[in-house]
Amino acid sequence: MDRATHDKLLRLAGLGVRGRGAVVGVEQVREAAKKGKLAFAVVAGDASENGRKKVLPMLLAKHIRFVEVPSAAALGAAVGRESTTAVGIVDRQLARGMRDLVQSSPDGAQ
What we know:
Elements: H1 3-18, E1 22-24, H2 26-34, E2 40-44, H3 49-61, E3 66-69, H4 72-78, E4 86-89, H5 92-103
Parallel strand pairs: 2-3
Antiparallel strand pairs: 1-4, 2-4
Helix pairs in contact: 1-5, 2-3
């Protein structure tokens, strides 16, 4: 993913959190996925193995598309935290916009 796409994706995640269209953290993302409310997720590539093991299998099992960003610190900063492993998008329109943004990027989403 190029830098401009990465930055825009993080800004949209931050907007989602401020507008209550997103949840932050492994447990909240897992809970939203279990309830069928999760539409898209952003996962930090450098997050702890334990955190990734908790969230990635759930996303894959529920067929929820996600994208990985390189830094938990950058993802956390975008949503007002020091760092975070995952941000889940529950607002369907925001999720669609983020998916479209990532798909237009050369690397694409999972």
